[in-house]
Design brief:
two-stranded antiparallel ribbon
Amino acid sequence: MGIDNLVEGETYEMRLSARSPKGEGIGRINDIVVFVKNAKARIGKTHRVKITKLHRTFAYAELAGVADNSKYFIGNGSLIV
């Protein structure tokens, strides 16, 4: 699956595996690198993300929800249900 199979505005599940120096979460949807805004404290979890912008080799997204349906705490002490 390449960039042609991703659609702006669609929701996908992905695991956030790293954070960028700008504070974005980084993950992959198949072979495409996806940068997720405001997700730096959610590294290691699987999330639903909405693709907001596609480029030739990467994409930007925003959080749309937690995909694994578990409760957990984020860096600022808030409980996510």
